[in-house]
Amino acid sequence: MTEVNDIHSKLSEEQLSKIQTNFKEKVKKDAEEMSEQFSRTLDNVITKIDETGWTLPIEMAIYPINVLGQTSEIKDINQFFYWYFTENERYNFVGLVDGILSSTIDEKFKTAIKECVFSYENKKYIITSITLITVIEGILSSFYPDKTNVRMMKVCQIQVDKIEGNKSVIEKYVWLSYNNFVRKLYEKSDFNNTEPSSINRHWLLHGRSEYNLTEIDCLRLFNAVSSICSIVNKEV
Questions:
Q1: How far apart are CA 23 and CA 17, in angstroms?
Q2: Helix axis angle, 77-101 relative to 62-70, nearest 10°?
């Protein structure tokens, strides 16, 4: 410590200032490189989860994000998320529900979520899925000034278009994944054709579905509600 003080005392103010400037520039450069690398990782994650209709869980830790985005270890995205939300006595699912219920969304949606959890735990996947879709629509409508507007794809696209550099990296990618999710959910489909393999809002709410809904479908929708709640909290 004495040696450090001796060196410090021998440096001129100009030299000290230069050292501090170089240090700050190095830290800034390293931070920018880390941010760029993380963004590339998230790009890969969004591409992978988009194929199976998942949104980015905002509470997901860095490690699973890196596993998803930087490796080819995960062959089945649905099974990965099933594991994520059900392992350790459903620790992440319980946290997801707690996050929704402690968010700033309207109390009526929280009441619906509680009933959805009850239905889900009793394996009533049809009731759970349909109700969660209506909750998603209700929350999304709060982002659009015209409360009568029900074009959810438009609502999401407007939010994506508004994303600027001052938005957090995670928030940006949550919206991007949400936009992809909503486009799949609301994708136009001819009722005379075969029902889409992924959840489709029109088939479900217009009574055209075969209702072959699974636990993973419900987890996917719970996760979508959680993702949008995290953004609502920041908007308030």
A1: 10
A2: 150
